[in-house]
What does this fold into?
Amino acid sequence: MKPVSLTLKAGASALKSVRSNGFDIASVGTIAGASGGAKWLILSQLDKVILRQLVPGLKGPVHLLGSSIGSWRFACYAQRDPVAAIERFETAYIEQSFSEQPDVHEITAKSREIIELLLGESGVDEILSHPLFRTHVMAVRSRHVLASERRSLLSLGLLTAASLNLLHRRTLGLFFERALFFDTRDQPPFFEVSGFPLQQIALNAENLRDAVVATGAIPLVLSGVRDIVGAAPGVYRDGGIIDYHHDLPHSDGDRLTLYPHFYDHIIPGWFDKRLSWRRPDPKHIDRTLLISPSAEFVSRLPNGKIPDRTDFVKYTPTERIAIWRSCVKACEQLADEFSELIEKDQLGAHLQPL
It folds into this structure.
């Protein structure tokens, strides 16, 4: 079969390995999840196939590397019944509703509500004790005026950070510190990632909720999370600011990274979205397998696009919910196609260079 709905890409070593030896599920050592808000809905059906079909063949430990909505998805992956958690998350996310002009506080409160529904009564303990998965959450600690919740100061700080980022990505280190909340049982390949100031915080029952909320706290949209237990004092925000799609070492040793993604390319940071020249270091994605919807598939979605947070203002709540449900239903085709490729061991035949 030739994939129609999926695009399959791989870094140089992963491409050579899978083409030569086939795709060995047990070789996956990391699963990566990007920032992207409502875009995650295009992956929910693919997530279910991965959980049902691939996870039983994985050999632990497997690191879950997430920022923003990627960490929310992985908070589902590492529960005892991950498919049920994904379904709770999907329903809560699609059906969320707000007043006509919601402020930051209302949106933040809704975010907390969804996290509680996603985690259920025992999700935190299940994540921290999962026999296979090691959950790691990327957030940032804001510096200077970017720690303020005053809209004028925060806007000015973001504009300054975005302007300097045009010159060099490392200038973001003047404004933000990477905050890696990590599972202490096994050190991930990105534990000592360089390029920006880095704080490493042990993930535990006291801070897991706050870490997951913080990594999705988009500046000017949601409030940052202040003074997380175990972390340096300060305000923590969306991990995608620095690690939008994870331009950092994904894989450990000879293991592979599985990366279900919204796009067929990787954008290093949040401020790089319109900077076509800003690309990831090839060494970081050398052993990465990227799975994404094809352009042809996306063109057939409602309005020819992947869901995103602008849909909250483009459509009435009823229209948005109907469109998002239709997108999720259409994405069953992605899941079916990926499932067939795995069953027939045809991934290698259709991989393109990443």
Remarks:
- The chain has a mean pLDDT of 96.
